[in-house]
Design a protein that fits this description.
Methionine ABC transporter ATP-binding protein; binds adenosine-5'-triphosphate; elongated; 14 strands; translocase; four-stranded antiparallel sheet; alpha/beta
Length: 335
């Protein structure tokens, strides 16, 4: 897959009261075209700084950022405006014009580009439909709910031929139900308009729900990055475990039983795999907890399963581990 952005050794420092703050420390990153790219990290990790480099609100202190083959620092004048139409941003607090109607807000980027009134209102009306705001054309932002305001923000961002949508904590001001609705809308628009979406958030649940690629940023460093599928199937991946957390363990295993923490490589196996492994070895299996989750479009299953090894030779456990490894990723023998 080609990259829409490529960052090479990008650093960003700020000076604050005579001190140097290292917001980003020589990070390198490829953002695949067509991905829903989640950048997650705690407060102060450097997420906003990274996004602000992509929407040209800041410049790197060192390193280069390419948009396709174009180094961002070479963009000048009209090329900057063209780039920002292709790479718009939506914001946590929506940043709408309060004195303009919904339709006028959405049409605004076209007005800036000198597009005639009839054409821009026609295009804005198309976007109204795409984001499901029919009937709200003449409302003012103060008359809208948070979710409706973000729909206006999304429509305004996409009105001028966007290719990449940057989302700056775009659901952080919304309740969880509205967050899901907005993420569903973003996922739908991504498909329909062939977008790349780059979303920064402190919320693991947002990343789990929508992202197909995830980057963890901490103290200005990239700790780990990859596609959800790759991360889940890497037994050593910290991000993989964060994306698919261990289910509640319940009670400890009984004496002589051994508990395994497993990710299934193929979730279609989930109903039969553990019992078949147990039967083939002449032992009993008991599911402790777990289930199938959908993560960024990938079905993933993590289970804790107890196996009864009472009275079995030591070699039985090695045989069990080997059988489990054939179709699952063994994260650990818990007890
Ligand atoms: N303009 C600035 N001047 C000085 N320091 C800054 C500036 N912008 C960011 N920083 C500092 O850079 C570091 C990274 O900040 P950044 O806003 O990128 O983090 P973040 O992950 O987006 O956090 P949050 O989720 O709280 O917004 C922080 O220590 C922050 O205080």
């Amino acid at each position: 897959m080609s990259s829409v952005f490529r960052l090479e050794n990008v650093s960003k420092t700020f000076s604050r009261s005579g001190d140097t703050v290292h917001a980003l420390r020589s990070i390198s990153l490829d953002i695949p075209a067509g991905s829903f790219f989640g950048i997650v990290g705690t407060s102060g990790a450097g997420k906003s700084t990274l996004l602000r480099l992509l929407n040209l609100l800041e410049k790197p202190s060192s390193g280069t950022i390419h948009f396709h083959d174009q180094p961002l620092h070479e963009l000048k004048g009209a090329a900057v405006r063209q780039y920002l139409s292709k790479v718009p941003t939506i914001f946590q607090h929506f940043n709408l014009f309060h004195a303009k109607t919904v339709l006028e807000n959405i049409a605004f980027p076209l007005e800036v580009r000198g597009i005639g009134k009839t054409a821009r209102l026609k295009k804005a009306a198309e976007l109204i439909e795409l984001v499901g705001l029919q009937g709200k054309e003449n409302a003012y932002p103060s008359q809208l709910s948070g979710g409706q305001k973000q729909r206006v923000g999304i429509a305004r961002a996409l009105v001028a031929d966007a290719e990449v949508l940057l989302c700056d904590e775009a659901t952080s001001a919304l309740d969880s139900e509205t967050t899901t609705i907005i993420l569903d809308l973003l996922l739908k628009l991504k498909q329909q308009l062939n977008l790349t979406i780059i979303l920064i958030t402190h919320s693991w649940s947002v990343v789990r729900y929508a992202a197909d690629s995830v980057t963890l940023i901490q103290d200005g460093n990239i700790i780990e990055a990859g596609s959800v599928r790759t991360l889940l199937h890497d037994a050593d991946s910290y991000l993989g475990r964060q994306l698919l957390p261990a289910p509640d363990l319940g009670r400890n295993p009984d004496d002589g039983w051994v508990r395994y923490d497993l990710i299934l490589s193929d979730v279609r196996e989930q109903s039969t795999f553990f019992s078949e492994v147990a039967r083939s070895l002449g032992i009993t299996a008991a599911m402790v907890s777990g289930g199938v989750e959908r993560l960024g479009g990938v079905d993933a299953a993590r289970f804790k399963v107890d196996f009864d090894l009472r009275g079995k030779a030591a070699s039985a456990q090695a045989a069990l581990s080997a059988a489990l490894r054939e179709k699952s990723i063994v994260l650990g023998k818990v007890a």
